[in-house]
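Before going further, learn to read the protein records used in this course. Taken together, the tokens spell out the fold as the letters spell out the chain. A record is reproduced here so that you can trace the correspondence yourselves:

***
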Amino acid sequence: MIVCYKHFEKGLIRLYVTYSLIFFVSGLLLSCQSAEDTGITIRWDNKRAVGIAIPKSFTPAIPTDSLEQLLSVRLADQNVAILGNYKRIDDNIVFEPLIPFTRGLRYVLWLKNKRLSEITIPGLATGDKPALLAIYPSGDSLPDNLLKIYLHFSRPMREGQSQKYVALVKNRTDTLPGVFLDLQPELWNADRTVLTLWLDPGRIKRDLQPNKRLGVPLQAGSRYQLIVLADWPDQQGATLAKTTTKPFSTVQRDSLSPMPARWQIHQPQAGSVQPLDVAFGEALDYSLLTETLHVMNEAGETVSGKWHLADREKRALFIPGEAWKAGLYRLRIESRLEDLAGNNLSRPFDRNLTRKDRPVTAQPFTEVPFSMR
């Protein structure tokens, strides 16, 4: 009996070990499944990996209201779940991260504490790099109280990087520290393709403590180079194709508001689709120009069309959506329009509050009439 029991006990042990190995190997096979094996697909939008679609057949019947509790997506070798939203679309469970997946990185799909699948986001093709399309102001002679610089990229860039990859050099020798405001978050447009860099207003406005302590960011009569380094990555990890340098010189400060009454308006003939040409006599703020100019017809309706900037932001051309009709028109300019020094139509940026000879207006817009014949 004792011998038989021992044999029986050994049989149980062998059986237990065998089944344990089966479950262990099965777990390994499950944990090592790739996206290709499981049918998980990557959802793309403008070359960005904005989500993954998990086939319904790959996961157990999970109630919709339990998706976020049971499923998680993590970077490989990390235990923190990526923030995002889960939803059902057709026969798939779709996960959309708050920030698109990064190309070249591996992610793991988990069901509770079980590793289900691994997904690798393909890297970009060699040579597929973002570009810095333009720097505004585009002129090479700027006031020494310049307030803003705009960087326009070809595709969404990685945020929070400007202090690392943008530099201002004076007279080709001195890199100037603390010139730009270190804003977090940075001032990007919705597409993350245009970044606004503010030169420190506290140093530009006279008699403020930063101005007294550090002086103005730029000095009249000097030459500068704005340098944007090629190492700046976009949201997919690809870096800029090249380093860009914009040279410019500074002239005396601009302390006067723009004066629309002095603008020159060259109107085309009625019946044509030629552009309305507006010359400002000075360079104005690139971003605000595209938002604050409106053409109104005699009935007070906005004329459809599109503005194009020219002559280094000293002119704007309005191309109508349809042929001009004869009659009276008005160019409506919102008072928030600024020049390069931040002076808007209502008040100068750096105004002396004790002076009463410079009126401050509160009207929301100014209008300049013209006619079409």
User: Anything to note?
Assistant: The longest strand covers residues 48-55. The chain has seven helices and 23 strands.
